[in-house]
């Protein structure tokens, strides 16, 4: 495998901690397996999160190709956009963010951090309007003599997914230290880069666990197809012989709730549960829904209580702040 030869621009503080969530286990009672949290909310780049691992490879490529501006897109509360702006600041590049305001545009959380990071921001009304704006910006930059490096939403291209192939090796070493061989790893899944990278990593490093993505938008069927394509392209990039089908990319779409960026009642309950048991903060859009998925499986008896399970905490903390007291109310579905 070519992993070690792919240039990486250091942006993360790794290994991120792997911690046992004993208080959460106690709260769940006898049905609970041993639960480990892989704390990728602590990757260290501007409040952390999963995108930092992808950006290490993408920024290295941007610099190697002489690019001057990182251009990316997402929603106003995009964690990926915030971390791209942070990576650009560190690497001495400009950052332009195309952000859609479908879930509001309060100047708080990630959106406020984007401004502090001096990103240039273009707000569009909805997701559909992003593509044309991205195109327009690309044209403008080229006309002005700049060299844009366009990062698709979530950084979910094969080079970005490489970050999560590498993470499996890191996690394997940590699991060995605590003598655990978990059967499953749960994570939030959206643009699939994280899950595709993990899927390749599990096979390449013969990990004990399967990866279970909990969708935050879209259907399981669609997402598994996209994930398999991305896993294959990532494997190819790395010279990994294995090939993947949609059956290798397990997605649970029961916890999407009212849709992308909208909190679900069970997700809000998870935010409160993890805060009071482990002092760990989940976010309404991604990690709360993923945790709801894992805990539903635990409560349904799908996971053997004698086993270990890993929850990959992919970050998102800054997007808690625009919600304000809505986080304290069980049924709220939109940020303020
Ligand atoms: C906090 C958080 N968790 C999970 C994800 C999903 O990762 P991916 O887009 O690689 O599926 C994202 C991506 O936006 C995120 O910000």
Q: Please indicate the count of domains.
A: 2
State the major sheet: 6 strands, mixed
Strand order of the largest sheet: 1-2-10-7-8-9
Poorly predicted ranges = 332-336
The overall pLDDT average reads 96
Q: Quick one: CATH class of the largest domain?
A: Alpha Beta
- The dominant shape is globular
Structural class: alpha/beta
Ions, cofactors and other bound molecules:
pyridoxal-5'-phosphate
Number of helices: 10
Q: Assign the CATH topology of the largest domain.
A: Rossmann fold
If you compute it from the alpha carbons, what radius of gyration comes out, rounded to the nearest whole angstrom? 19 Å
What pattern of helices and strands is seen along the backbone?
Answer: EHEHEHEHEHEHEHEHEHHE
Q: What distance lies between the first and last C-alpha atoms, to the nearest angstrom?
A: 47 Å
Characterization of this structure:
- With 336 residues, this protein is of the alpha/beta class.
- It has 2 domains: 3-49 and 157-328, Rossmann fold; 52-155, Rossmann fold (3-Layer(aba) Sandwich).
- The chain is built from 10 helices and 10 strands.
- The strands form 2 sheets. It has a 6-stranded mixed beta sheet, with helices on both faces. It has a 4-stranded parallel beta sheet with strand order 5-4-3-6, sandwiched between helices.
- The structure holds pyridoxal-5'-phosphate.
- Pyridoxal-5'-phosphate is lined by residues 49-50, 79-80, 154, 156, 188-195, 283, 286-287, 314-316.
């Amino acid at each position: 495998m070519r992993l070690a030869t792919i240039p990486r621009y250091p942006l993360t503080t790794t290994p991120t901690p792997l911690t046992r969530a004993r208080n959460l286990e106690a709260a769940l009672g006898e049905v609970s397996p041993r639960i480990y949290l892989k704390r990728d909310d602590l990757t260290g780049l501007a409040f952390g999160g999963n995108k930092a691992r992808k950006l290490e490879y993408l920024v290295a490529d941007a610099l190697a190709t002489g690019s001057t501006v990182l251009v990316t897109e997402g929603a106003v509360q995009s964690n990926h956009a915030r971390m791209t702006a942070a990576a650009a600041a560190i690497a001495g590049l400009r950052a332009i963010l195309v952000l859609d305001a479908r879930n509001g545009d309060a100047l708080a959380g990630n959106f406020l951090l984007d401004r502090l990071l001096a990103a240039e921001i273009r707000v569009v009304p909805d997701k559909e309007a992003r593509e044309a704006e991205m195109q327009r910006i690309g044209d403008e930059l080229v006309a002005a003599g700049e060299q844009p490096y366009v990062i698709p939403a979530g950084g979910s291209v094969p080079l970005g997914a490489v970050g999560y192939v590498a993470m499996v090796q890191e996690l394997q070493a940590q699991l060995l230290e605590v003598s655990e061989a978990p059967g499953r790893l749960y994570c939030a899944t959206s643009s699939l880069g994280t899950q595709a990278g993990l899927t390749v990593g599990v096979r390449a490093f013969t990990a004990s666990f399967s990866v279970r993505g909990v969708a935050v938008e879209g259907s399981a069927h669609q997402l598994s197809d996209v994930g398999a394509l991305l896993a294959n392209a990532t494997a190819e990039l790395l010279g990994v012989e294995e090939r993947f089908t949609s059956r290798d990319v397990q997605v649970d779409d029961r916890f999407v709730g009212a849709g992308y960026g909208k909190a679900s009642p069970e997700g809000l309950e998870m935010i409160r549960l993890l805060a009071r048991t482990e002092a760990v903060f989940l976010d309404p859009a991604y990690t709360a829904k993923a945790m709801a998925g894992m805990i539903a499986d635990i409560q349904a008896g799908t996971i053997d209580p004698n086993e270990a399970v890993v929850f990959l905490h992919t970050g998102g903390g800054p997007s808690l702040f625009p919600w304000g007291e809505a986080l304290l109310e069980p049924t709220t579905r939109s940020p303020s």
